[in-house]
Amino acid sequence: MNKEDLKAISSQVRRDIVRMVSAVKSGHPGGSLGCADFLTYLYFEVMNDNSSNFTMDALNEDVFFLSNGHISPVWYSVLARKGYFPVSELATFRKISSRLQGHPSTDKNLEGVRMASGSLGQGLSVAVGTAQTKKLNEDTSIVYTLHGDGELQEGQIWEAAMYAAANKVDNLIATIDFNGRQIDGDVEDVLSLGSLSEKWQAFGWEVLEMDGHNFENIHSTMTEAKNKVGHGKPVVIIMSTEMGMGVDFMMGTHKWHGVAPNDEQLSSALSQLKETLGDY
Amino acid sequence: MESIEILGNKDTRSGFGEGLAELGAENENVVALCADLTGSLKMNAFQNAFPERFFQVGIAEANMMGMAAGMTIGGKIPFTGTFANFSTGRVYDQIRQSIAYSQKNVKICASHAGLTLGEDGATHQILEDIGMMRMLPNITVVVPADFNQTKQATKAIADHDGAVYLRFGRPVMPIFIKPDAIFQIGKADLIQEGTDVTIIACGHMVWKSIEAAQLLSAEGISVELINMHTIKPLDEEAILKSVAKTKCVVTAEEHMANGGLGEAVARVLASNTPFPQEFIAVDDSFGESGQPMDLMEKYGLGASHIHAAARKAIQRKA
Description:
The structure holds two protein chains of two kinds. Chain A is built from ten helices and seven strands. Helices cover 40% and strands 12% of the residues of chain A. Chain A has helices at residues 3-24, 29-34, 36-46, 72-82, 123-136, 155-166, 187-191, 196-202, 215-228, 263-271, and strands spanning 63-66, 143-148, 172-178, 181-182, 185-186, 206-211, 235-240. By secondary structure, chain B is of the alpha/beta class. Chain B has two domains: 8-175, Rossmann fold (3-Layer(aba) Sandwich), CATH 3.40.50; 189-316, Rossmann fold, CATH 3.40.50. Chain B is built from twelve helices and 14 strands. Chain B has helices at 12-26, 44-49, 61-71, 84-87, 92-101, 129-135, 147-159, 205-218, 236-246, 261-272, 292-298, 303-316; strands at residues 8-11, 30-34, 54-56, 77-83, 107-111, 139-142, 163-167, 172-175, 189-192, 197-201, 223-227, 230-232, 249-256, 277-282. Chain B has a seven-stranded mixed β-sheet with strand order 3-2-4-5-7-6-12, with helices on both faces. In chain B, strand 2, helix 2 (44-49) and strand 3 (54-56) form a beta-alpha-beta unit. The longest helix of chain B is centred in the N-terminal third of the chain and has 15 residues, at 12-26. Chain B is globular. In chain B, 61% of the residues are buried. The model of chain B has no long low-confidence stretch (mean pLDDT 97). The A-B interface holds A 56-59, 63, 65, 105-107, 114-119, 121-134, 136-137, 139, 155-156, 159-160, 162-163, 167 and B 31, 52-53, 55, 57-58, 60, 62-76, 78, 93-94, 96-98, 101-104.
């Protein structure tokens, strides 16, 4: 898929995100917009997954876990656009009896979701477990995760990081959405992560850095990450992103972490995002 | 009481260890995780026989619960092992989100539950775990009574599709359940039939209740004794059938009164056919250091306490 095709998908994903959160006046557009390019690339170019016949066990399939579950809008949109479930179902997001819960869940059997997330810091442990099961099953596919940078303040992340390196869980590629913002403000002010790259290196991980809005850079970094699989170390990608990317008034601030646009703001946002694949 | 025979004396945790080792040989999908308490949980036999399926996670229980949840994806049946306190209170949110809400087939195996952990004291003597676990949807709660039953339960929960909390303990206690008894999740054991009072107990308190029933029997009181080894789902039919005869109940558990077996039974009675109930349980208090059986006496969990409660329950019958 060429860069223009990927851009077309991520533009539509961004439209889906702002329309979904606006429709229910709730949800998390900022981080969702920031991860639209990465998740588009991951699902359309990287992962060996089966969107037409979803199975919980994912035997011989790559698996993705969204650990920062609050950016569910971007994940739901990418899953629907990939064909996991009908695009029309995006209209039910956060509404009563919907399979598209505010934070992802398994209990309503939404294709593509294998683990509930929302309470932060748990997804890396889950991914390590699935990666270990793949090794026991002699399944050479890869486990991917996405985490917020603020989420790294949770201690469980570092328990999992320590375990994965000590036990050579090298079929795992974790990505950090490094947008530098969280609910109360800049990560640097709320609780600084310090030298993030050095922290992961000290924990024994292969560390890569990536521009989360540049498809050429995403391509080369993900290729490098995959090449590091099977060499004795887990891989983490520190991905620089802009919260709110693609909607001018949502960028450069933490304020759109968990706030939905009103009708006027929605119109402005949609005017900046090209409809490429048809709105749901 | 003639039918109750002491078959030996062992700790329930050893029943878990033996059951787990047998499971390892019978089912290659069974994996075990332990947070630096392999010896205490008696998981060495499994570890030695199946090192590739044994995962030492270190002192990191939150990660262990998350890993166990993740390991189910691809068909493994993970058994986690640590003390009851670190199996529940320390990791409640991990169990809630990654195991219960996510409907994962994890077996949370918890030793050293309750006061009988003994000398280590209140930091380790959890008395709230049954309550915490039975409040969660999608979790079955099993509290076996002796060594044999713990071994049987360990094997039975592997065949059950869904999360299970299996609670057992440290002290050496009499074995009275036959090694070939059939353990069925959710189906209470009728230890002894009687007509004057029903005693419903779980875990170590089943033996204490047998002792109490012997005292009561000597006084001419006929006790029906139920081993309620599954707290959730609760065998309501067994409770209602028994109280229809005896018309009063004593519940006995090595746990806080709040949230435990007694309250679960009280709900069944209140919703169906209210009868007097007396609660043998810890009354809103932490434990402390001491020898296990001394602590049971101090905190009101001895056979004499069950005996007195039974007499009171009978007195309260209209």
